[in-house]
Amino acid sequence: MTGPGSRATVDWGVGNYERTARLLLPAAQVLVDAAALRAGERVLDLGSGTGNAALLAAAVTGAPVTAVAPSHRLLSVAAATAQKLGLSLLCKVGEA
After folding, report:
1. Residues 23-55: pLDDT tens digits?
2. Strand extents, DSSP E, the chain
3. What class, spelled out in words, does domain 39-96 have in CATH?
4. What kind and span of H or E run contains 72?
5. Segment 56-74, tens digit of pLDDT
């Protein structure tokens, strides 16, 4: 239970969010396409989770992308994928 001035938190790192992220990948592609990113542009992905949009943006821009999410575990998935793909992704734990 939460009281005045406190808030409930969700631990996005619990469970198999990777499955959900795979289902959301087409939406991330639509978002990145709509942003019409150009080479070298800086991108900040808030609530990045496993990094769908951040990774797509890094591939388009060729520049480092900053991914922010509250889950260490999901950011580690994003970082591992970036490394595997040779993309520059800066992962920061935080909330927006």
Report:
1. 999 999 999 999 999 999 999 999 999 999 999
2. 43-46, 65-69, 89-93
3. alpha beta
4. helix 72-85
5. 999 999 999 999 999 999 9
